[in-house]
Amino acid sequence: MLDTGEIAEEVRRRVPGGVDAALDLVGVVTLHDSLRAVARRDIVCNSGILGNAWVFERFEPLVDIPSTIRLSVYDSETITAANSGTALQRIVDGVAACRYRVNLDRVFSLDEIAEAHRTMKESRATGKLVVRVWSARAVNPRSEATPSKGSAGRSAAAPASRWGRASRWPRARWWVSRPELSRRPPRWSAAGRRQLRPA
Q: How confident is the model at residue 18, as a pLDDT?
């Protein structure tokens, strides 16, 4: 699915009734669209402002929030060692055990940091950009993957993206349906901005 900023209609065509949850990292630019894509009694969580807009020009809750849909926010400033240490450690352990994979677009050396910023600003990346401070050589994980510890030769780098660079907001909205949460990995949308798990 190509994410153009308005994909609620297409989401509902593929998942009749809407998805169970939406995580929106774009913010007010796409939040109305996210609210229209979830099912009744389900939730939209806004946790980012990648759309470079901080406030709604007009927001009328009784009109803009569909009836029974829950709108929430998550602010990483609420994370502390006291209230989140155990959960964060599980993530660290999962990375060490290769249960999680990060979709890397390119790794830059420190002297290429200007190019890294240009790549990000021009939305040319289809994965995460990393600046490595101890190497003078940039690595393209699509052609030169380094096996991770304990992976028995499995590459730690994500496979090449199939979807090109069509989105202004890569990897910024994710959609899930609960029955699939524990059974299989997600399918990324065309521009990588949303994560779909149909019911």
A: 94
* Cα separation, 157 vs 128, whole angstroms: 10
In the 8-state DSSP scheme, what is residue 124? -
Q: What are the pLDDT digits (tens) for 35-45?
A: 999 999 999 99
The matching CATH number, chosen from 3.40.50.720, 3.10.180.10, 2.60.40.1080, 2.10.260.10, for 1-100+164-199 is 3.40.50.720
Cα(73)–Cα(179) distance, rounded to whole angstroms?
23
The candidate with the shortest Cα–Cα distance to 31, out of 167, 168, 173, is 173
Residue 152 vs residues 98, 145, 149, 198: alpha-carbon distances, Å: 11, 13, 8, 32
Element of type H or E holding 109: strand 104-109
Residues 6+ apart with CB under 8 A from 172: 24, 25, 26, 30, 48, 50, 193, 194
